[in-house]
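*** C-alpha cells ***
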Amino acid sequence: MPGESGGDEQSSTMVDGVYSSLLLAIVEARLSAGTPLSQNKLAARMGVSRTPVREALLRLERDGLVQRLPEAGFAVATITIDEVNEACDLLHVLDTYVYQRAADTLSTAELDEPPELAASPVDIADSRDAEPR
C-alpha cells in the first residue's frame, strides 16, 4: 500500500541516522571500548523510539563494533591485539593493490609527476575512477 512504504522509508532513514550517529561516536572514540549502550538512554538522547536504536545496534553488532551482553544489552566492542594486527595486514594488502593498480593504469608522465602531498593513494585512485574516460 502507498502509505506503508513511506513509513518503511522513514523508519529506515531513522535507523540509518541512529546508526550513523553511533558509528561516528565509536570511530571518534566518544564512545570508548566497553561503554555500555542503553537503548532507553540512546533513544531519549536522539529523540527516537527504542526500535530504530535497537535496529542500529544490531547492525553495529553485525559490523563488529558493538557486542551484545547477556541480559545487559549492548556495549561498544573491545579490540584485541590480534584484531589490530589483522587490520594492519589488511591495510598492507589494500595499499599494495592500490599502488599496483596505479602503476598499471598511470602513464609514464603521470608517474613522473610529484604526488600531491595531501592526497592518499586511495584518493588518487578514486578520483581517477570518477573521471570520464
